[in-house]
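RECORD TYPE: inverse folding
INPUT: structure tokens
STRUCTURE:
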């Protein structure tokens, strides 16, 4: 289990990479963020299909699956900070799928 939440995004998506970079610089508290292409997906319990269709936020034993780009809003809301109340109503939370 990771100590800090991890945001898994598509490193080939220019919008995703730019949005994560901007938010990392502007928000005091933001989860660790890594493109899925750099990660061991099996160790995270994710498939290639999972990461090519969704952005994932892994927080402890829980996984949150979000359609791109609303996942960034989900990450903000879970970490608190100045945008705590700006939760994105389109983001879809999913429990740990047990993979």
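DESIGNED SEQUENCE:
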């Amino acid at each position: 289990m990771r100590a800090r939440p991890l945001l898994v995004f598509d490193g080939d998506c220019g919008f995703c990479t730019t949005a994560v970079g901007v938010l990392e610089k502007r928000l005091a508290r933001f989860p660790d963020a890594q493109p899925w292409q750099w990660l061991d997906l099996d160790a995270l319990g994710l498939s290639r299909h999972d990461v090519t269709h969704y952005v994932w936020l892994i927080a402890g034993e829980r996984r949150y699956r979000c359609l791109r780009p609303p996942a960034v809003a989900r990450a903000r809301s879970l970490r608190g900070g100045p945008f705590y109340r700006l939760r994105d109503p389109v983001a879809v939370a999913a429990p740990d799928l047990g993979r």
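NOTES: The first strand starts at residue 6 and ends at 9.
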